[in-house]
Structure formats: C-alpha cells, structure tokens
Amino acid sequence: VRDFxxxxxxxxEGEQFxxxxxxxxxxxxxxxxxxxxxxxxxxxxxxxxxxxxxxDCEAICKLGLKSKILTHIRCHMDDAKxxxxxxxxxxxxxxxxxxxxxxxxHGKDMNYIAKAAVDVIEFVxxxxxxxxxxxxxxxRSDIVDLLNIxxxxxxxxxxxxxxxDTVGCANPRQVYELVRSLKxxxxxxxxxxxxxxTGCAIGNAYSALEAGARLIDTCVLGxxxxxxxxxxGGFMARMIVSAPDYVKSKYNLKKLRDIETxxxxxxxxxxxxxxxxxxxxxxxxxxxxxxxxxxANPSTYEILKPEDFGISRYIHFANRLTGxxxxxxxxxxxxxxxxxxxxxxxxIKIKQMGDIRPLGIDDVDSVIKQFHADL
Length: 375
Ligand code: HCA
Ligand code: CU
Hints:
The protein is α/β, with parallel strands linked by helices. Helices cover 46% and strands 13% of the residues. It has helices spanning 24-37, 51-61, 77-83, 99-104, 110-126, 143-156, 172-185, 201-210, 232-242, 244-250, 256-266, 288-296, 324-333, 340-356, 361-374; strands at residues 5-8, 41-44, 68-74, 90-96, 130-136, 160-165, 189-194, 215-218, 284-285, 314-315. Strands 1-2-3-4-5-6-7-8 form an 8-stranded parallel barrel, surrounded by 7 helices. Strands 9-10 form a two-stranded parallel ribbon. Helix 5 runs parallel beside helix 6 (143-156). The longest helix is centred in the N-terminal third of the chain and has 17 residues, at 110-126. The chain binds 3-hydroxy-3-carboxy-adipic acid and copper (II) ion. 3-hydroxy-3-carboxy-adipic acid (HCA) is lined by residues 13, 16, 72, 92, 94, 134, 136, 162, 164, 166, 193, 195, 217, 225. Copper (II) ion is lined by residues 13, 164, 166, 193, 195, 224-225, 229.
C-alpha cells in the first residue's frame, strides 16, 4: 500500500460538523495550512450552498496553492454550471444510490441518475476540469446498480469514481470486497469516503487502499457530519507505519499538530486525549518496565517516532508504577550526582509516596532534591 493521495475535506465535510463555522479568513488560513502540509487536493463546500460559500470558493482558488482545489456538488446541471465558474481545478459530483436516499432524499431512479451523471460529467470535462463521480451510501446500494453506473461513467471518462460509506456502516472486509469488485469494472482511480459512526473509518481507509483504491477523503481531527470521517492525523499515523518513505517524503508531518490546533480552536473543541500522535499522552510512557525499555530503545514500546511529527516523548516518572531507570533519567535531567544504589533507595521512597496520593512532577523533584541535600 503506497502511492495514495489525500482529498482533504475539512472545508467541505468538515463544515458539516456541528460546531463548524469558518469565516473567509479562517477558511483561507486552513487552506494554506493544508497546502503546506502537502494535501493533494482540498475539497470545498458547494458554491450553491450559499452566496458566501461561492465567494469563499473563488477566493481560495485565487490563492495559487500547490494543492488542487475541488468543489463538491450534487449531480445536477444547475450546480455544475456554478461550480465550473469558480476557478476550481476539479469537481466532485455525488448522488445517492441507496434505496433510502432514492426514496427519502432525491426520489430518482437509476436511469435518471445515469443520465444526470453523463450530462454533468460531459459538461465539467468540456470546461477542462477534473471530474469525480461518486455514489452516496454506496454500502447500502444495490451492487448491480452500483457497478452499472460506475461502468457507464468510466466509459465516458472520469478522473475518479468514489464510494462513500455515508452512514459509517461498513467494515474493512466489506470495503475490501467492494473496492475489488469496482476495480474489475473501471479503469480510472478509486476514491473512498468513510464515516466513523462505528469506529471503522481509518481501518476501512486502509483496507480500501489494500484493495487498490488510490484516494482517501480526510478531515482534520475527523470532523464532519455526526461524529465525522477519517481523521487526517490518525490516517497519517496508520500510513507512516505501512509506507514510511512515501509518507515522510510527501507530507509535512511536523505541521500536523499546528493544523489540528488551528482547526480545534476554530470549531471550539479540545484535541482528543487519545488522538493518535497529538493526544497529550500519545508518547508518554508510564510503567517502570516501559520507561526502562524506552530509555534503552524507544522502538520497544513505540511504533511511531515522535520526532517524525516534531513531538517529544515523555517519561512519566512521578507515580507509583515508576522504576529506578525513570528516576535516574530525571535525576540526570536535574543534574544531580547520585549513584545507582542511591537512586534505587530514592525510588523506593517515591513509590511509597505514590501509594498514598497522586504525585506531581514538582512533588517528586523536591523529594529528589531533598534526598540529595540530605546525603
Ligand atoms: C453527505 C455526502 C457525503 C459525500 C461523500 C463524497 C457522504 O454529506 O452526505 O462525495 O465522497 O458521506 O456520502 O459526504
Ligand atoms: Cu460524508
């Protein structure tokens, strides 16, 4: 699994997050940050969503970013006509294909969908823009209907087709099978969009790539409708393990924390404590056994290297699970000359204290200093 691309949708799917309101300035700041990160594509809210959405789309297109700019529209000529005038590099088109969406959303049958798709695709292509066609709720759509529509759009020529797990119902095995089936009927690239309602979004993205998909939709912190989609950071964590050279050469991973902080502040949430890479304890090692091994060789208990993301690891020494190697490392940081036997004796003291109450770093530092002074 390598050679994948990211369609960063914080400024489209992410705008559908409950707390999101991005003014023009904030959108530009986020777009620039994603560009610096190396996002292959940045997807923007439909220009027909609102007057300001259209203006913002035009403003971002004028920034001259390296990332390609896309907008996202319904499979409808009215939308396509507005989209092609915004200055975007490409248009992502989507239409619901499941019985739920056909019945309760747009009310159209598959013949109508095929005809609308062909019209919109040919129109967007005639303007020299990239075009992606995607079904919505792909995993609850009829597989024969799906493969037929994809075959049709692939034959007239599209840059990509997309599948979307709109309700987050799919599991990695189902994803693998659908992408495989799709690969048998289309020659263009396959893009995938996974919601995280059942916690499978990153796993599904990985499975899609294994099956031969090339593009994954992400949002910073995974924000989006309901509980969102594949998070950019967690996805990077997954991929750096699988394709380290590709990921490190292509994406500016040291920007991740800043981008997450920027978006978290914009939508008024905290960085999740258990976030891959940037969660406050993602590189904190606590138990004495872990600390000892980490000090000897970080790979013992770390699959990700914090330095790849510009983050440092932390040895948690102020607790009752600590061990003398962790205390020794702290003593060295404090620049106090204690030998190993003294440190072991000191460690027993600290563990005894830790049995009585939670310890702070300051607490333990003063115990260490006092121990040294009393020698
Ligand atoms: C929605 C649409 C979508 C579209 C995905 C895509 C989904 O907001 O419901 O175009 O790739 O999840 O189906 O985000
Ligand atoms: Cu979505």
